[in-house]
Design a protein that fits this description.
- The chain is α+β, with helices and mostly antiparallel strands.
- The protein folds into three domains: 93 residues, no CATH class; 92 residues, 2-Layer Sandwich (Phosphorylase Kinase, domain 1); 174 residues, Transferase(Phosphotransferase), domain 1, CATH 1.10.510.
- The protein has 17 helices and ten strands.
- It has a six-stranded antiparallel β-sheet with strand order 1-2-3-4-6-5.
- Strand 8 and strand 9 form a beta hairpin.
- The protein is globular and about 100 Å long.
Amino acid sequence: MPALKSLLNHFLNASRLLPAILTRPALLKLWLKNALKQQIIIIAILAALIFIAPMASSALADALYPPQKQSFGNRFSNLFKSKKNKAPSVHDARQQQFQAGFWIFGSISIIGIIIIDLPRLRRLGKEQAEIQFQQAQSIQQSNPELSQTLRLQAQSLVIEPETPQGDEEDDDLNKTYTGPSPVQQQRFVGQGRRYRIDNTIASGGAGIVYSALDTLLERQVALKELFDDVAQDPEQAARFKIEAKALAAFNHPHIVPVYDMFEENSHSWLVMELLTGGDLSQKIKQQGRLTLSESLRIVKGIADGLAYAHAENVVHRDIKPENILFAEDNSFRLTDFGIAKTDESTIKTQQGIILGSPGYMSPEQASGEALDLRSDIYSLGITLFQMLTGKIPFEGETSQVLIKHITQAPPPPSQFNPEIPANIEAIILKMLEKKPAHRYQSCQELILAIEQLT
């Protein structure tokens, strides 16, 4: 009964969103882009109603209400009766009723599929709106007209459930979206309302990262909140705790420190150092490519951080520019150990299940095989390749990229940047060897090779 009640409440709450969403083309377009599975099911139901329901209705009517044989006299007299005067047979009436029942059941199923998916759509819309609002803020001075357009687009993507009658809060559907609301800015979480959430600074597939104030220690921190649907997945929730456990035990200048982890109202939170200098991916986009000295400085620092993690039996498994964050003083840290592999982890990745970012995966990771610290060296090699060229070695659709990682040799980085010295190119290509045994066998070995050349 509790499960049934919970399902009913979910259905009722979601159904309140339907009228507002149907009037917002931007949200409908977002649903069409992000609900392929639901759309396939709906198309299958419609196809069944059009092609299978008539035959099934006829078969049921034949089985339960066989048509009676008419005598020659009845058939002869029916020839002179108009169709209006002919009463439908029991068989025909039941067949029509069965077909109508199929359509009613199918229609209810389609509506149910859509309504159940609405909370997810609401979350997707809010995430996209936060991104557009941040873009609007960044160009407020340089291009106020485009900034206002982005704000309006963000407004059309945000939707809140209707406020129940008698509630003193205003209906958010009638508010203009201008970014994080004052209510959201004053949101507190943690024991004793310790952390005050200020703004959204990033959003990924598993959660949202906020800037916040630790009111106890009076310092700015980053709060990572796991999405509800992810938190309810036991394996995803366990990975989140692995990240917290792995990072909390670390003390290294190039790894983002974790200060705290807690659960509140079925939400999981991670408290980390707040870095406000952007990520490496943004630096590459802004500059096109980085200088050799800057690239090697970053790679040596991240390699040193990875060596520390590897010594603690932790393999990161998702090294990429987006996971290298900068502080205002241009120092940098490695973050996002959410899919890290540790010796203490009890989570087993199923064969064929691939975790990570396709463009940066090692061949063994792309194959779904067992991997070790040398996989991180491969991913770091692609990151160095991108810093010096502005490109990654393999591009295309996900399946094509994975196959290229496994089967194709990477192009020499000097093909895209002739200024790369031959000895540095040799280091990159060794990091990108297909077989782990042919790469550097440790991050210390990689750092030593770089230092001998610089």
